């Protein structure tokens, strides 16, 4: 890794983790998840995933030969009781999304993160992967679900949402044992992330114009979330608590026309529920209200 970028990433990760971690680079978050799981688990092992979860994550698990163990989520994240049941049943790893969960948009509350930490304390051997993919764009505070007793863990933070979906780069902070296993797995594949891409990422992250636009994007997505939440409340949905607006991944389909409702059926990990996904990155207030009414 480029030394300047490594120093930047180490400082950024340490702000939230509070401990020294080893830093590696992968070609995006899904690449990180696949390499971590394949390096530390065996085909057929159970992996806890949120239900619903990011489709690329569930597809990756299936192609790699792991068994997905779906655990439901609510407005504060993964449900603790169901998580404990899955771990008690033998799951070897868990993938957690602390902020901007895809597709529901929920983020961990402080209380939910504490409940997850308490559960994971009883399963120190379980590999814990935290997919904080929206970290640089999230307006929601970081609440760590990671207890000090966890032996193998990784915090994955992608820059794809920040710099663009074609710029595949993700930082992986982890303990030394996990880092060593990941590096062996990286050496067997593409071996490194382009140094040109690393240089570009570092330049953007340290450019005042770019960081200002990043802050404005964060505010814009929050305003869009508030408009959608208000429209839902107006149509009879329960009001969302102040300061915890769900982040509906407005960036995911920002290229869609502003007048497109972008509503589509969505299959889940388990077939017990159905839902719709709504992308509203550039939708006008009137369009949001009209789409919710429909």
UniProtKB/TrEMBL annotation:
Gene3D superfamilies: Type I PLP-dependent aspartate aminotransferase-like (Major domain). InterPro entries: Aminotransferase_I/II_large (IPR004839), Class-I_PLP-dep_aminotransf (IPR050859), PyrdxlP-dep_Trfase (IPR015424), PyrdxlP-dep_Trfase_major (IPR015421). SUPFAM superfamilies: PLP-dependent transferases. CDD domains: AAT_like. It comes from the Bacteria. GO terms for biological process: alpha-amino acid metabolic process. This is Uncharacterized HTH-type transcriptional regulator yjiR. The lineage of its organism: Bacteria, Pseudomonadati, Pseudomonadota, Gammaproteobacteria, Enterobacterales.
């Amino acid at each position: 890794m480029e030394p300047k970028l490594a120093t930047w990433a180490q400082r950024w990760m340490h702000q939230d983790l509070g401990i020294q971690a080893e830093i590696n680079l992968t070609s995006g978050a899904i690449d990180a998840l696949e390499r971590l799981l394949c390096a530390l688990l065996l085909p057929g092992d159970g992996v806890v995933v949120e239900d619903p979860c990011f489709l690329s994550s569930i597809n990756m698990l299936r192609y790699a030969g792991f068994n997905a163990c779906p655990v439901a989520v609510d407005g504060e994240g993964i449900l603790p009781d169901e998580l404990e049941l899955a771990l008690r049943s033998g799951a070897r790893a868990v993938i957690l999304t602390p902020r901007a969960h895809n597709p529901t948009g929920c983020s961990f509350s402080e209380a939910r993160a504490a409940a997850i930490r308490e559960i994971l304390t009883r399963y120190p051997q379980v590999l814990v992967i935290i997919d904080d993919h929206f970290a640089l764009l999230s307006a929601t505070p970081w609440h760590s679900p990671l207890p000090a007793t966890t032996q193998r863990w990784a915090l994955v933070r992608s820059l794809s949402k920040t710099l663009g979906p074609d710029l595949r780069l993700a930082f992986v902070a982890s303990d030394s044992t996990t880092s060593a296993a990941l590096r062996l797995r990286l050496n067997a594949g593409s071996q490194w992330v382009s140094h040109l891409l690393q240089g570009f990422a570092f330049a953007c992250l340290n450019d005042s114009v770019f960081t200002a636009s990043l802050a404005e994007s964060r505010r814009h997505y929050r305003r869009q979330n508030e408009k959608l939440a208000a429209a839902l409340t107006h149509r009879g949905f329960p009001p969302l608590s102040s300061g915890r607006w769900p982040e509906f991944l407005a960036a995911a389909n920002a290229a869609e026309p502003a007048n497109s409702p972008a509503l589509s059926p969505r299959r889940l990990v388990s077939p017990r529920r159905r839902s719709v996904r709504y992308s509203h990155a550039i939708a006008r207030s009137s369009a949001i209200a009209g789409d919710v009414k429909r």
